[in-house]
Automatic annotation (TrEMBL):
Residues 287-297 have a biased composition (Polar residues). It comes from Prunus avium (Cherry). It catalyses: a uridine in mRNA = a pseudouridine in mRNA; a uridine in tRNA = a pseudouridine in tRNA. This is tRNA pseudouridine synthase A, mitochondrial-like. GO terms for cellular component: nucleus. GO terms for molecular function: pseudouridine synthase activity; RNA binding. One of its GO terms (biological process) is tRNA pseudouridine synthesis. The gene is LOC110746632. The active site is at residue 108.
Length: 534
């Protein structure tokens, strides 16, 4: 009786704990399992974070912001840099939907940006995410920083408004500068004769297509500029380390080998340009008398010594003074509010709800001097913009200011039942200045960082002075893009301007730029509603 009892009590206790200890010991003492656990903990530590990335870029040489197969775009280079920086895994490469990619604004070909924002879920750890991105990007694209956002954040949907800036040369607003051939011939023998631009005629022969067909190649050359503004009366020196080289469609490569160098001296009081020197072996006539009268423009009426400025040889004394500023702002202010902008874009019909856009403000109160050229800084703020909308708004405003069309044509162009061919200004002077997220900051300001450019103001200003402004000035100096475009503002290319001007002349003169009701006059000559169709 005792033997079976002792066997049952002795055997189970030593076996069960021994088996458990053996299992425990085999799992903990394995070196291979330790590495896998450490690797798994690293993956858990570096989680994807929903962030908003602030950056800037110079649009020269790019086919716009949005990614397009077969084209060099800003978005394509940025996505590749995110992958090379280990912010995007291999399985998500070239598939932005997998990491919630969104952009605040799309820019056209050649258009730059200072305050662009994109959002997505990226691996931002370990520290140094911004430096890793910049190391995999060209100097034309600079990442300023990033901020954590909510999981539902979308850079496009949460952007309340966008601010764009267009730098238009002051000479573009001079009605007597860069006139078309017909106007020059018609002015012969009159009290005010227009001067033919020999430089623009020569450029027009060299450049095939003129607009939108330029190829760029960046070189490492030095281009020194002085940039000053008539608002803060400060001068900023900057060095421009890139050269824009042009290869026209029907021209040889020798026409674009020269490198301009500008030496500018400005007064500290009213930004009077006292001298421009261009060293150019093949295009020395760039600053000859006809063009020099339009490029050397002074905002003030007197020089630093208080003496009156000497009269220019050709008699052109145009400057962007208070009278000109008030008139140009009056024209731009007509765009403010909610309107149908189907005439200011392409592939959008008047009945499409997308043609309705809201413009918050549009003004041109500041003039800046870059590389010896004076520019008017046109700032427009709106909820969103369509393709070519801002460039067409600037184009029509300049045509009206130059008396190529009456001011009432702008109101007609905003009507839903009117079709008008509106001039499109060159893309080189346009850049995205900032994107705003007021509603998001108001709702999530207590728990998340504010989304704005306040933390990157200095970096954005430095990028603007180093890349964007010098590119705009050097392109105009070497190619005369705006000058060539001004010659196209004639009634042969834009018959609608001719019809409006003829209607205005039948109702009253518009030489002083006063507004004339073209709609009523044109309505008497054609069936209602008024329609200018090309």
């Amino acid at each position: 009786m005792e033997n079976p009892d002792t066997k049952t009590t002795r055997s189970p206790p030593p076996q069960e704990p021994n088996l458990k200890k053996l299992k425990m010991s085999t799992t903990t003492t394995s070196d291979d399992d330790e590495t896998t656990t450490t690797d798994s903990t690293k993956k858990q530590r570096y989680k994807r974070r929903k962030v908003a990335i602030f950056f800037a870029y110079c649009g020269v040489g790019y086919q716009g912001m949005q990614k397009n197969p077969g084209a060099k775009t800003i978005e394509g280079d940025l996505e590749e840099a995110l992958y090379l920086s280990n912010a995007v895994p291999e399985q998500d490469r070239n598939n932005p939907k997998r990491y919630d990619w969104a952009r605040s604004a799309r820019t056209d070909k050649g258009v730059s940006a200072v305050g662009q924002v994109v959002s997505g879920r990226f691996y931002v750890d370990p520290p140094g995410f911004v430096d890793r991105l910049n190391s995999n990007l060209s100097p034309q694209i600079r990442i300023f920083g990033y901020k954590r956002v909510t999981a539902s954040f979308n850079a496009k949907k949460f952007c309340d408004r966008r601010r764009y800036v267009y730098l238009i040369p002051v000479f573009a607003l001079d009605p007597s500068a860069h006139r078309d051939r017909g106007s020059v011939l018609a002015s012969l023998g009159s009290d005010k004769e227009f001067v033919k631009c020999l430089e623009c005629s020569e450029r027009g022969r060299k450049v095939g297509g003129l607009m939108g067909k330029r190829n760029y190649e960046l070189r490492g050359t030095s281009f020194e500029l002085d940039i000053s503004s008539n608002t803060n009366e400060s001068v900023v020196d900057s060095e421009f380390n890139e050269e824009t080289k042009v290869f026209p469609d029907n021209a040889g490569g020798d026409d674009s080998k020269s490198e301009p160098r500008n030496e500018i001296s400005t007064s500290s009081n009213n930004n009077v340009v006292s001298g421009v020197e261009v060293e150019n072996s093949e295009e020395t006539d760039l600053n000859s008398e006809p063009l020099n009268d339009t490029t050397k423009v002074s905002v003030g009426e007197e020089n630093a010594n208080g003496e009156e400025k000497p009269e220019k040889e050709s008699g052109s004394e145009f400057c962007y003074g208070e009278k000109e500023k008030d008139r140009f702002n009056r024209i731009l202010n007509c765009y403010e509010g909610t309107h149908n902008f189907h005439n200011f874009t392409t592939r959008t019909k008047a009945a499409d709800p997308a043609a309705q856009r809201y413009i918050i403000s549009f003004n041109a109160n500041t003039a800046v001097t870059v590389g010896g050229l004076d520019f008017v800084k046109c700032e427009v703020v709106g909820q969103s913009f369509m393709l070519h909308q801002i460039r067409k708004m600037i184009g029509l405003a300049v045509a009206i200011f130059r008396n190529c069309a009456p001011e009432s044509l702008l109101e007609i162009a905003l009507q839903k039942d009117v079709n008008i061919n509106v001039p499109t200004a060159p893309e080189v002077g346009l850049y995205l200045d900032e994107c705003f997220f007021a509603s998001y900051n108001q709702k999530w300001g207590d728990s998340h960082e504010e989304l704005s450019m306040k933390d990157y103001e200095q970096e954005a200003e430095d990028f603007k002075m180093k890349h964007i402004y010098p590119h705009i000035a050097s392109t105009e100096l070497k190619e005369g893009v705006v000058g060539l475009w001004l010659h196209s503002l004639n009634h042969r290319n834009y018959p609608d301007l001719c019809a409006a001007a003829a209607a205005a002349d039948s109702n009253g003169n518009t030489s002083n730029g006063e507004s004339v009701d073209v709609g009523n006059v044109a309505g008497e000559k054609s069936c209602s509603p008024v329609s200018f169709i090309v």
